[in-house]
Amino acid sequence: MVSEHARTRDGRELHLERHGAGTPVVVFESGAGASRNMWGTVVPAISGRTTAVVYDRSGLGRSPADPEPRPLARLAADLRDVLDHLGDGPFILVGHDWGGPIVRTVTAEDPGRVTGILLVDQDDEDSDHYFMPGTKRRMRLSALTDPTAARLGLFRFGIGRLAAKLPEPSATALREEDGTLEATRVQMAELACMIDDLRRLRDDPPKLPDVPVTLISGRRSGGLGGGSRASLNTAHRARAAALPQGRHVVAEKSGYLVPFTEPGLLVREIFRILDVTR
Hints:
This protein is an alpha/beta fold. The chain has a single domain, classed as Alpha/Beta hydrolase fold, catalytic domain (Rossmann fold). The protein is built from eleven helices and eight strands. It has helices at 42-47, 72-86, 99-109, 133-151, 156-163, 170-177, 181-191, 194-203, 226-242, 258-261, 263-277; strands at residues 2-7, 13-19, 25-29, 52-55, 91-96, 114-120, 213-218, 246-251. Strand 7 (213-218), helix 9 and strand 8 form a beta-alpha-beta unit. Helix 2 crosses helix 3 (99-109) and helix 5 packs antiparallel against helix 6 (170-177). The longest helix is centred in the middle third of the chain and has 19 residues, at 133-151.
């Protein structure tokens, strides 16, 4: 494993780790407020066949914070800068949760470098549950209460349970770097514009190239209500059906934390995309 830093166009540094060797290079984009550590079980398997890259967005993990707001466009620009640092590709992009729209935005802007995409329970603008009145109220409440909960250490138990599912050194890094007050503040900043960004995506969806695209949906509701889970999975299924090489897979044992609960499923799907692109 090689640790290095990618420099953004405005001079910030993003910590990244490069594992293995070969192409296509598989680049992982974490969910809102999550560091590179969430991929700790997936990356070792992928790096046995090709290069796997994980990185920390600004303010997460080992990357210094960004003083500017964190809308989708800025997150996507940072991923483009990471890809520029890594070279010409080709790349397979993997995005979880809010990482899905980031990956799709970057692919639409620079389709020539991307040969495959895996979207893991992504936030999807075609799911109506994001636009229900109660959703924005819950997000505003979380923005008020979550920093206090993080300051009191209330997230540490959940982080510890997730870390127990990871190998070292990712387990220790997750316990130390995730669920902190700083990480919670970054998560709130990343989600502050989420609903508006989803509306923009609904009005002008990213146009993906004709490459293999797999969408994975959790079966269990997890933090979502049953109706919200059904709406999200319907959107995932419809998006896969509309793509020339789209594929929809259900993670039967998972909610939205599929990288922790069914990492083997992600490995199999990445290998499938690798085999197709090669």
